[in-house]
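Listing S7. Sequence submitted for prediction.
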Amino acid sequence: MSHVVIQHTSEPNLNTIASRPFGIRDKLGYLFGDFGNDFFFILVSSFLMVYYTDIFKIHPATIGLVFLIARLWDAFADVVWGRFIDTRKAGIQGKFRPWIFRMSFPLVLSGILMFVKIPGMSDGFYMAYAFVTYLVWGTLYSTVNIPYGSMASVITSVSVERTALSTYRTMGANLAGLIINVVGPLILFVNNKADSNRFMLAAILFGILSISCYMACYKLSNERITIPETQAKKLHLGTTLNGLRKNRPLISILIASLVFMMLSMLVGAVNVYLFKNYFGSASMLSLAGFIQTLAVFIAIPFVKSLVNKFGKKEVAAAGMLLSSVVYLALYFFPHVSALQFVIISAIGMFGFAFFNLVVWAFVTDVIDYQEYVTGLREDGTVYAIYSFARKVGQALAGGIGGFAIGSVGYDAARSVQTKEALDGIYTLATLIPGIVYLLIFFIIVFLYPLNKQRTNQLAVYLTEKRLESGRKG
């Protein structure tokens, strides 16, 4: 993407480790990282609530409170772990890769334990078990995801290559989503009902796939960049927070990502009830997952040319507007079949796919802007702050999802839900996304300042500054 490229062979503020050149091996390694992450992340976001309501028999509002507390804890764990990682010295295998290797095993084990049901226990026990296992899984997820996300900044220092990593990361997430959303419902539900043994089987299967992907990420990725000790000593949280206060691009993209993540988690939870109860076919979730994920892969070839021509901000905003129109149309035309809903909503997913595909490149730009504000490169810490916002979004979405499903009158004890509950579920799945996508459109257009021209200016400024610093050094 020519307008975001900062062409240089070395950066004075960074040390480059001699190694093989950046290439497809790194891209695939980074793809496998989010592939592994999302085997459990999507399983949890899409199906854990229905597991708790239909198998543990926990009220949706109570689950919402559990999700809210746990995700807020996770948000702070992200920042703490990010700062901890920043204080560690890089070893022979790098600074971030070893943590992926070490922590992925306990992470996957904790994910499997979430879907274990010990028969014959009390409601209080199931409530406590759900809270503890979910909290432990979320905390361990931070110990893998923070080094994984931060690692992009040390795989390469060239912006166009970081953008490639962003695209491959999104591809990895969508491949996991394809498998979970297509295969998951076929495994998890028996005669349109959630089955405890099937959930356990799925957790073990996806756990094996997840750990395999983490090992592929560890083996294929290569860290090339390390922060000099002189710069590392200058990194202070106060400097970072002061830069954050002045970093309007970062603040606006944090808000947009927080809102987007809230909606994604909400829709992922609601869609299970939408197809299982409103349309009466949980198996349709598989077709929905396949067609909607296909829409994302259709968008991928268009990203580079559209961004080159119009800019990331402009393309992401247009995609959000398209998604908003599609979901609002679905709300005003409620008497569609399940298949019609899947096909039409896929157009909306095609729209917001453009935001999803460039969001990590947005993060690269706002990290560049942080360097412009503070004069220091703080990739790991800024990524942790960005992840903090996403976790807050997940926390609020988990709470809102549970409260929303409960508020429309869903009752797991009823074999057939009331018309009011079904209509409420459909509203949650259509009107709310339509409004929120429109809100994100306005945030990108009116709050995010780095359009194509300003991004180019920032790249030129930082390049000249680094070259001047190099001459002085």
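Caption to Listing S7: primary sequence and predicted structure tokens for the chain studied. Residues 288 and 441 are 25 Å apart (CA to CA). Residues 1-18, 229-233 have pLDDT under 50 and may be disordered.
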